[in-house]
Amino acid sequence: MSCLVYFIIVSLMAVTLASASTIVPRGPQTNATCTSDYDWTDNESGLSPCLLASYLLGSCLTGDYGVWALPADSHYNPPNVGTMSSTPCSCSWSVYNLLSACTVCQGNVNSVLSWAYYKAECPDDDLSTTTFYPYDKGYELPEPASIPYWATQNHDSAELA
């Protein structure tokens, strides 16, 4: 009997230790690093466009979202292509602008997708013609995630697509 009790205790300790080692920090995440030439793209709280994009993307999801560093000559896929699902946040002008800045600030200047290509897989319900972020659909951002003015620009109205 004592061997069985010992086995159960050791098994429980192993499970506890194994589960403790897999704890992952929660919240918006990025490992993408912008060069200092692009410090101007940071918001007023000092968040890079990469980290700010993860805040915006995560605000429409039930879990957390990370914007990860890109390999050379690469870009972030548009919604519904790859791992990013289509939401009012991922299809917003602000997320597009922030992901574009995140692409460029990592040195991938020639890899930015056009707005027309980026939004092509977004259903009409997820696109807005009136606002840069879906505040009108009840989505909110935490305080450090203020959106810089440059990231609020609509490429359809500015004829930049």
Structure explained in plain terms:
By secondary structure, the protein is mainly α. The protein has one domain (25-152). Helix content is 29%, strand content 2%. The chain is built from 4 helices and 2 strands, in the order αβαβαα. It has helices at 2-20, 49-58, 93-105, 115-119, and strands at residues 29-30, 66-67. Strands 1-2 form a two-stranded parallel ribbon. β1 (29-30), α2 and β2 (66-67) form a beta-alpha-beta unit. α2 (49-58) packs antiparallel against α3 (93-105). The relative contact order is 0.17.
Taking the sheet with the most strands, its summary is: 2 strands, parallel
Q: Helix count?
A: 4
Work out the count of structural domains: 1
Strand content: under 5%
Unreliable sequence segments:
10-23
Mean pLDDT: 85
Give the number of DSSP strands.
2
**SSE topology string:** HEHEHH
Proportion of residues in helical segments: 25-40%
Distance between the termini: 74 Å
Class based on secondary structure composition and strand pairing: mainly alpha
Rg from Cα: 20 Å
- Order the strands across the largest sheet as they lie in space: 1-2
Give the overall shape, derived from the CA principal axes: globular
Signal peptide: 1-20
Keywords: Signal
